[in-house]
Design brief:
- There is one protein chain.
- The chain has 921 residues and is α/β, with parallel strands linked by helices.
- 40% of the residues lie in helices and 12% in strands.
- It has four domains: 3-139, no CATH class; 206-258 and 295-323 and 337-469, Thiamin diphosphate (ThDP)-binding fold, Pyr/PP domains (Rossmann fold); 534-783, Rossmann fold (3-Layer(aba) Sandwich); 791-919, Multifunctional 2-oxoglutarate metabolism enzyme, C-terminal domain (Rossmann fold).
- It is globular and about 105 Å long.
Length: 921
């Protein structure tokens, strides 16, 4: 027999055993010793082991086969686990049988348990007993799925936790009667709503009732750990039950939501308040406990877009655990908070935001210390069966690519389910990584309460109709063991029914319904903000920010950049402030004022156009230096990260961070403005509508490079028209600044308004204007100026009586107009820049126009197509000008389905034509 008869770790295992035997025969068990005593391999050339006597070779093969069988059970045992409460046969795996390895039970009975290894070997008399014990662990109603992990310590810990059943209720007892009471609460709640409000949507948890006790178990473990926050993200399935029983949302509120009374005191129209359906709402619950820490459980509201809440919860988690009340780098403590995400079995592999979110889990800028994922697997996606919903065996298999361990559990086995919760928390607490629980149950009703599931799954629902609930299964188990009497379970049902009926009987829907109606933004708050900074203070801050530590070796080109930044404030009246200098100074002064800043995005450290250089790197050793973390005037932390190449999850993460800690300035930058297309759900469902639906007040800043410069359809437009289409009821600010000073004051104003007038800020940032002379500003403009929603034509203002025509424009196109040769010829034409588009600055624009006494025509001119940009939005706001005797005209590219030309030559020709048409020449 040769070593080549064995493969992989088996060969190494045999060699190791044999070497141990040669050194000390007593170091191996008696049976193995007897085999090796008959086996006398000799080295010969390339052969490591020579041919042995036939009988001994057979015995050695059986040793290796037994080890292989044990490994197969550990790795593939979940494929034979009894995971389906409805009795579907598991898929199985041939390597799980002894016969596959050439073994019989008799062979295994003659082999030592030590061949199986692990904790099982110590409590088993032989290999057969050890193998059966492994099957009872790995192929029961719980299946472990962790062999894909690269980290040996994690695999070893999971194996020992599994094989010692360290977290099973048999080792850590539970209150069995209390569990029955909780399951009764969960079931009675659903059935009561079903009777009291027939046909009304509630998206029942029935079939996965054990989820609530599992969350209870997680909360208990969190309290023991000393963490202060649990954040739960979940969709609509089972949400009402979790809100009622985990977050203690009063029954009266939920029942009032079902009654849906008309509330005349909610002035929805003038405040932009719409509210949301009951199974989208969130809650916050403070757990009164005897432990020193007081735990807060939060479930943020979310839309029906499945899994959209996942990265939002991650961002909230990061914000809760991050301390920023000090200069330098923020400090994140993963022990402060625990995120829990509850997924659907069709959505987890089906929605792209899931892998995007999982990809964030181990990135420096997005790490949250590990998330506990629970897939509420009811084996259906509306009417779609798993075979049509995913290309993997398990709904959870996507997580394997991110080296996340998984346990698959049968939702009808309460003790195993609680074991899974304990295991998940312990793993997260130790390794600070994600963990997945694949909770396999069923859906007792259709997708919603008005749906008939038997249309598409007749056989499945025939089984479900006759299948007992987990409450009944657990009650019968306790009664069978004499723990409760036969009548106890029914008494609990009656008790909880009576409690719900009492709440319904005394309900006053209009009074019991609590709607968080938002207050309107303070009128005029934005106009009162002073954003200028004294020149001496700017110079001192600039010197410190741009002072490099001794021994730091900067790239030669960046040495010149830092030198220019350092000297940019020397002459108060010289236009020496470009976009990047203004940004650095704005952020530095904001930090000096005590407001923390988080800035992320694609290539944001350097900037897509090499403009930020917020992080510098030593060319000799790669050391990273962030100047805004190093200057002494800072009173708060600054962080900047390059994001992964993702928009949806990353922007949602920043949204979550922002709403959790609204007093911090949070900015997200797209590589190009049109990349926002990939985050449309985040914009529509959270940023622009969260105030109207849920009363949230986000203040996230979006930086979207925008401008037509011949880069083609996909690198020209920040989709300005889309944001203006969403603009209503003062829900956002939309701007298109054209100078460095404007950008400086805009950022400082946003920071100043975080606590008094929070609104999301959409900034169409420039590309070619970043270093353009006409976009540069003087230091005096930073010191004495302020944000201007409208910028008049200073040159034409000197002789206003000559002006007959105003070209009203926004952004980069204004520079095209001002640098045109027609500018000098048409002295009767003024160029007025609209820097703020929403809210439309009517009060600032009208005085400017009235300052031209002979004005006859106001033209809105833009480089975007007629059906894009701001044209249609502005047209509505220019209508009142006709009452002033003015004509309103419009110039743009022709309507198009694509934003811009792919040909640079065609772009240039069309751009020149637009300039000519604007001036009327």
């Amino acid at each position: 027999m040769e070593l080549s008869d064995f493969h992989g770790p088996n060969a190494a295992y045999i060699v190791e055993l044999y070497e141990r035997f040669k050194q000390d025969p007593g170091s191996v068990d008696v049976h193995t010793r007897s085999v090796f005593e008959k086996w006398n391999p000799q080295p010969d050339g390339h052969k490591i082991l020579e041919v042995a006597p036939q009988a001994a070779a057979v015995d050695v093969r059986k040793i290796v086969s037994a080890a292989n069988l044990a490994q197969a059970i550990r790795e593939y045992g979940h494929l034979a686990a009894r995971l389906d409460p409805l009795g579907r046969k598991p898929p199985g795996e041939p390597s799980l049988s002894p016969e596959f390895h050439g073994l019989t039970d008799s062979d295994l009975a003659c082999l030592p348990a030590s061949l199986v290894g692990g904790p099982i070997a110590d409590s088993s008399g032989n290999a057969l007993e050890a193998i059966e014990a492994l099957r009872a662990i790995y192929s029961s109603t719980l299946g472990y799925d962790y062999d894909h992990l690269r980290n040996f310590e994690e695999r070893r810990w999971l194996r020992e936790a599994a094989e010692t059943r360290r977290y099973h209720p048999a080792r850590l007892p539970i209150d069995e009667k209390e569990l029955l009471d909780r399951l009764t609460q969960v079931e009675v709640f659903e059935r009561f709503l079903h009777r009291a409000f027939p046909g009304k949507y509630r998206f029942s948890i029935e079939g996965l009732d054990i989820l609530v006790p599992m969350l209870d178990e997680l909360v208990d473990r969190v309290i023991e750990s000393g963490a202060c926050t649990v954040l739960i993200g979940m969709a609509h399935r089972g949400r009402l039950n979790v809100l009622a029983h985990v977050l203690s949302k009063p029954y009266s509120e939920i029942l009032a939501e079902f009654k849906d009374p008309v509330r005349p005191d909610i002035a929805g129209g003038e405040l932009g308040w719409t509210g949301d359906v009951k199974y989208h709402k969130g809650a916050r619950h403070r757990v009164a406990d005897e432990t020193p820490s007081c735990l807060v459980i939060t479930m943020p509201p979310n839309p029906s877009h499945l899994e959209a809440i996942d990265p939002v919860v991650q961002g909230m988690t990061r914000a809760v655990g991050t301390s920023v009340d000090h200069p330098g780098q923020p400090r994140f403590d993963p022990r402060v908070t625990v995120p829990v995400l509850i997924h659907g079995d069709a959505a987890f592999p089906g929605q792209g935001v899931v892998p995007e979110t999982l990809n964030l889990s181990r990135l420096c800028g997005y790490w949250t210390g590990g998330t506990i994922h629970v897939i509420t697997n009811n084996q259906l996606g509306f009417t779609t069966v798993p075979e049509d919903a995913r290309s993997t065996m398990h709904a959870s298999d996507l997580a394997k690519g991110f080296e996340i361990p998984t346990v698959h559990i049968n939702a009808d086995d309460p003790e195993t389910c609680l074991e899974a919760s304990r295991l998940a928390f312990a793993y997260r607490d130790l390794f600070h990584k994600d963990f997945v629980i694949d909770l396999i149950g069923y859906r007792r009703h259709g997708h919603n309460e008005g749906d008939e599931p038997s249309f598409t799954q007749p056989k499945m629902y025939e089984v479900i109709r006759n299948h007992p609930t987990v409450r009944r299964i657990w009650a019968e188990s306790l009664a069978g063991r004499g723990i409760v009497g036969e009548s106890h379970a029914q008494e609990l049902v009656q008790k909880h029914n009576a409690a719900l009926q009492e709440e319904l009987d005394r309900l006053e829907p209009a009074e019991d319904l609590h709607e968080p109606v938002p207050k309107p933004p303070p009128a005029g708050a934005a106009r009162r903000v002073k954003t200028g900074v004294a020149l001496d203070r700017l110079r001192e801050i600039s010197r410190n920010v741009n002072k490099l530590p001794d021994g730091f070796h900067l790239h030669p080109k960046l040495e010149r950049l830092v030198s220019r930044r350092s000297s940019a404030l020397d002459n108060a009246d010289e236009a020496s402030i470009d976009w990047s200098v203004a940004e650095q100074l704005a952020m530095a002064t904001i930090l000096a004022d005590g407001t923390a800043i988080r800035m992320t995005g694609q290539d944001t450290e350097r900037g897509t156009f090499s403009q930020h250089h917020a992080a510098l790197y030593d060319v000799e050793n790669g050391r990273r230096l962030v100047p805004l973390q190093e200057f002494p005037q800072a009173k708060a932390a600054f962080e900047v990260y390059n994001s992964p190449l993702s928009e949806n999850a990353v922007l949602a993460f920043e949204y979550g961070y922002n709403i959790q800690e609204p007093q911090r300035l949070v900015l997200w930058e797209a590589q190009y403005g049109d990349f926002i297309n990939n985050a449309q759900i985040v914009i529509e469902e959270f940023i622009v509508s969260a105030r109207a639906k849920w009363g949230q007040t986000p203040s996230l800043v979006l930086l979207l490079p925008h401008g037509y410069e011949g880069a083609g359809p996909d690198h020209s437009s920040g989709r300005l028209e889309t944001f203006l289409g969403w603009a209503a009821e003062t829900n956002i600010r939309v701007t298109n600044p054209t100078t460095a000073a404007q950008y400086f004051h805009l950022l400082r104003r946003q920071a100043a308004l975080l606590t008094t007038d929070p609104l999301p800020l959409i900034v169409m940032t420039p590309k070619s204007l970043l270093r353009h002379p006409l976009s540069a500003s003087t230091p005096s403009e930073l010191a004495k100026g302020l944000w201007q929603p409208v910028i008049d034509d200073a040159e034409r203002r000197a002789r206003p009586e000559e002006v007959r025509q105003v070209l009203l424009c926004s952004g980069k196109f204004s520079v095209d107009l001002r640098t045109s040769e027609l500018r000098a010829e048409r002295t009767d034409t003024a160029i007025v820049r609209l820097e703020q588009l929403y809210r439309f600055p009517q009060d600032a624009l009208l005085p400017v126009l009235k300052g031209y006494p002979n004005l006859r025509i106001v033209k809105w001119v833009q480089e975007e197509p007629e059906n894009m940009g701001a044209l249609r939005f502005v047209r509505n706001h220019l209508a009142p000008l006709q009452r002033e005797g003015l004509d309103a005209e419009f110039v743009s590219r022709e309507p198009n389905s694509s934003p811009a030309e792919g040909s640079t030559a065609l772009h240039n020709a069309n751009q020149a034509a637009l300039v000519r048409d604007s001036f009327g020449g």
